[in-house]
Description:
Helix content is about 30%, strand content about 15%. It is an alpha+beta fold. The protein has one domain: Glutaredoxin. It has a 4-stranded mixed sheet, with helices on both faces.
Amino acid sequence: xxxxxxxxTCPYCEYVEQQVKDNSRFHxxxxxxxxxxLKKFLDLRDSHPAFVEAKKEGxxxxxxxxxxxxxxxxxxxxxxxxxMPETGAPSCNIDGSGC
Length: 99
């Protein structure tokens, strides 16, 4: 099973979440649904090297995928999903830009 951390207000998350709807291979966790979901995600984000570049750019780091072999990635392609087409708009950033 692939664990997928998302946030309902993130357009990119919505895009990839539609691709996994009713797909039992994916366990979707909305980090905005409960503080425990957010804490679990932040523990991962604060300690895993997969988030280094995202944090440098001010990105939140969602969607995030934990693959079946334990690999943590921010790449939708790595999870077998189609990435959101480039629109030229920035991604969701901590500073409020994007989204």
